[in-house]
Amino acid sequence: MKSHTSYLWFSTPGRRDYINITSAVEEELVKSGVSEGLCLVNAMHITASVYINDDESGLIQDYDDWLEQLAPHEPISRYRHNLTGEDNADAHHKRQIMGREVVVAVTGGRLDLGPWEQIFYGEFDGRRKKRILIKIIGE
Amino acid sequence: MKSHTSYLWFSTPGRRDYINITSAVEEELVKSGVSEGLCLVNAMHITASVYINDDESGLIQDYDDWLEQLAPHEPISRYRHNLTGEDNADAHHKRQIMGREVVVAVTGGRLDLGPWEQIFYGEFDGRRKKRILIKIIGE
Amino acid sequence: MKSHTSYLWFSTPGRRDYINITSAVEEELVKSGVSEGLCLVNAMHITASVYINDDESGLIQDYDDWLEQLAPHEPISRYRHNLTGEDNADAHHKRQIMGREVVVAVTGGRLDLGPWEQIFYGEFDGRRKKRILIKIIGE
Predict the structure, then answer these.
(1) ipTM of the complex
(2) Among B105, B129, C58, C126, which has the highest number of CB atoms less than 10 A from its own CB?
């Protein structure tokens, strides 16, 4: 069995951002030499997500609005977590909607994605350095 | 390490539908010859889900109502994504709630599921051909 | 390829509870002897979650309030599922928000977690014995 581990760093200029990381994951798959297996991609911070959906700017704005409806950033005092001095409780909630991780099949040396599947990093509390992890196992 | 890959096609008559695919996944596990490992099942389209929950008709209707509350189909103009000519922005949202994929343990040659766990395909924008992927790795 | 399977039992005193299981998963990893691979941790019951987030009591109370807003327990008659004689339909909904499972990378013989990542069992219909599954594969 082969395995390959890689970490990607992000520091987004705004509080929330959505970054297509599909090509970066594909590059790691090439390095891994795995042709049949599984590829895990996960946020390593608990106010961010890795998810798969469409790279369409209108949809991304729709997601952002919807997450803000489901778990508003303000008032900060809405959340007990913010009593710790943080202001990012909403980000911990938004990340649960969008998920921590994706597991993608590797088939014939490629990410076995559907026609519109794109892997995204969803940042909900940016403006600092944060990591994702890519782990590929197989043969 | 063994690996097995299979694709299942669906074309549901209505916009939304919930299909128990547990037996179909079990069939692929038998074909794989894997006795210890992991089984990934994921939607390959971004307006559909694979999830695990109860095969109880009342609950499925509850889910459908709840998803429609959280991300209503209409008005179509509610979503920027629909400005592209699509009318399925709600389906992209519903799928994030229910998730893209499940990973199931394989133990002793069987899907290692709890007593009520059933694997479902959740379709939120049907009436066309769409695929799921089954990837099994192990020994 | 090595594989290791373990089941943990829980019976929480209240209806809803949130239990940090990171150490228990780490113990199973040591037993597995796996140094590079993947670790699946999933609820085996469909009214419970395994998720990764912060071990901070304010945030956990925030989650509990938020889940109750998104899928209230009462009135029981709100849900068709409860016509079966159950009163736990809300728990089936809360679990979909928080998720069934996590997949964690194993690197250098350790769970490859970010600085604040903690693995939690989220119970939404407690007061009875329920299981989670840990499956570790790799080398």
Answers:
(1) 0.97
(2) B105
The pLDDT tens digits along chain C (139 residues) read 999 999 999 999 999 999 999 999 999 999 999 999 999 999 999 999 999 999 999 999 999 999 999 999 999 999 999 999 999 999 999 999 999 999 999 999 999 999 999 999 999 999 999 999 999 999 9
What single-letter DSSP state applies at residue A137? E
The contacts of residue C77 (CB under 8 Å, 6+ apart) are none
Indicate the DSSP class of residue A78. G
Residues C87/C113, Cβ–Cβ less than 8 Å:
no
* Minimal C-alpha gap between C96 and chain B (Å): 6
- Is any Cβ of chain C less than 8 angstroms from the Cβ of A131? yes
Nearest-neighbour CA in chain B from C57: distance (Å): 25
CB pairs under 8 A between B and C: 94
C81, two tokens:
């599922």
DSSP-derived letter for residue A130 is E
Residue C65 DSSP SS3: helix
Selecting from A46, A95, A137 the residue whose C-beta is nearest the C-beta of C38 gives: A137
- B95 sits in the region (left: phi over 0; alpha: psi -120 to 50; else beta) called alpha
User: Nearest to residue A62, comparing CAs of B70, B17, B65, C97?
Assistant: B70
Rounded distance between C-alpha atoms, residue B134 and residue C43, angstroms: 20
Scan for tokens 């769970």, then name that residue: C111
d(CA C131, CA B116): 12
How many other C-beta atoms are found inside a 10 Å radius of the C-beta of residue A84? 15
Select from A43, A46, A81 the Cβ nearest to the Cβ of C58: A81
Place of tokens 């179509």: B76
Cβ neighbourhood burial of B129 (10 Å; 0-12, 13-18, 19+): exposed
- pTM greater than 0.80 (yes/no): yes
Q: Please give the distance of CA B71 from its chain centroid, rounded to a whole number.
A: 18
CA distance A75 to A63: 20
Strand order in the sheet with A17-20: A17-20, A118-123, A48-53
Mutant choice from B50, B57, B59, B107 vs C, greatest count of C C-beta within 10 A: B59
pLDDT (tens digit per residue) in A121-130: 999 999 999 9
Contact between chains at C56 and A96 (C-beta distance less than 8 A): no
